[in-house]
TrEMBL record, chains A, B:
Homodimer. Component of the cleavage factor Im (CFIm) complex. Signal peptide: none annotated. The gene is LOC111021937. The lineage of its organism: Eukaryota, Viridiplantae, Streptophyta, Embryophyta, Tracheophyta. The keyword Nucleus applies. Keywords: mRNA processing, Nucleus, RNA-binding. One of its GO terms (cellular component) is mRNA cleavage factor complex. Gene3D superfamilies: Nucleoside Triphosphate Pyrophosphohydrolase. InterPro entries: Cleav_polyA_spec_factor_su5 (IPR016706). Component of the cleavage factor Im (CFIm) complex that plays a key role in pre-mRNA 3'-processing. Involved in association with CPSF6 or CPSF7 in pre-MRNA 3'-end poly(A) site cleavage and poly(A) addition. NUDT21/CPSF5 binds to cleavage and polyadenylation RNA substrates. The homodimer mediates simultaneous sequence-specific recognition of two 5'-UGUA-3' elements within the pre-mRNA. Binds to, but does not hydrolyze mono- and di-adenosine nucleotides. May have a role in mRNA export. The keyword ATP-binding does not apply. Belongs to the Nudix hydrolase family. CPSF5 subfamily. This is Pre-mRNA cleavage factor Im 25 kDa subunit.
Length: 217, 217
């Protein structure tokens, strides 16, 4: 019994530590300031152009890696996910594609500053990148994303990694004029693949292991 | 630059550690032995009976907590999830309900031994319970499970926690005769809510942050 008791005590400590690390503080939407800056230039390309670009990039650099941020705020006592909306239709997590040899964390900070910070004012310490929540794979250029690698696929063409990014109590978001930053409740995302696609609609599941400490304004 | 360089080095170390902890070894299905034991007795109750039982249990003990195991094996170079099938229809993750005041880990080990080990031979060290992958909540007795708690719900009635359980290189599974233990590829579970329900069909997403080290037989 002595050994067993000791084992249990250790497990309880570990469980308590794990419990703490799974608690995420979120702050009211009203704590944040939202401004705008000049529009981002998007590639105005056809699907065929895009496919061609992806193929030649793959030939040159191999697997394309995208990093995306899960940023949360509180509204009506429910966690809301920050999404960028393009042309009143497509929803995207803030993030983008890594440069060759760029680390996940450096790349994500660069992309977040480009899309969410005032130009020239941002530095890497603006963003606290936390753990990787999930990865999605595109086995071929023309296929959808899957949350696993199939065994019959030689090399995946694209990998999208989602990271939890912890927001400070307050900050400014300065967003390009042709993008809209919106806050969507988790309950609206869940099982709403039609509107948000498989990756974003799956975020509530990826977050389900966390408890949210909602800090009152 | 010195401080910055130091910061980057620390992040790289952390990233490397995180990367290692996200690698999961899985072994071929053929490494495991499957046997059977006497059937488990199930409560043969109507939906109304079940509802009544859940309500009186909630009144007595509060939130009902279930713990379930994500157990993986390799087959055809693809990770497969072990599921229990009841009456050739319902699929379940191995696990069950905690006793009052029982810890998640103790309860899960007890349930796994009851459903997957020979009677009397099992001890807690049989099962290596890893991290919590996700939690699902039942806001009311008659509703579905959701991967978040709604703000307009006073107290949830049930919480189901999924844990990654790491299998050893080899072991025996001794399963009650009225249950079937089956291995289902992740690619068959994903987006197959109709067959497997929301919790099991979401497991591939919850596992997507891991890389699998498939150990050849």
């Amino acid at each position: 019994m002595g050994d067993n008791g000791h084992l249990h005590a250790m497990e309880d400590d570990e469980a308590a530590t794990a419990e703490q690390s799974r608690a995420v503080r979120i702050y009211p939407l009203g704590n944040y300031y939202f401004g705008s800056k000049e529009p981002l230039l998007f590639k105005n390309e056809t699907l065929a152009d895009r496919l061609h670009r992806m193929k030649s990039n793959y030939a040159a650099n191999g697997l394309r890696t995208c990093v995306e941020a899960v940023l949360l705020v509180e509204l009506f006592k429910h966690p809301h996910l920050l999404l960028l909306q393009i042309r009143n239709s497509i929803f995207k997590l803030p993030g983008g594609r890594l440069r060759p040899n760029e680390s996940d964390i450096d790349g994500l900070k660069r992309k977040l500053s480009r899309k969410l910070s005032a130009n020239g004012t941002s530095d890497a310490s603006d963003w606290e990148v936390g753990e990787c929540l999930g990865m999605w794979w595109r086995p071929d250029f023309e296929t959808l994303l899957y949350p696993y690698l199939s065994s019959n696929v030689k090399g995946a063409k694209e990998c999208t990694k989602l990271f939890l990014v912890k927001l400070p109590e307050s900050r400014k978001f300065i967003v390009p004029k042709n993008l809209k930053l919106i806050a969507v409740p988790l309950c609206q995302l869940h099982e709403n693949q039609k509107t948000y696609g498989p990756v974003i609609s799956g975020v509530p599941q990826l977050l389900s292991k966390f408890s949210f400490n909602i800090i009152e304004a």
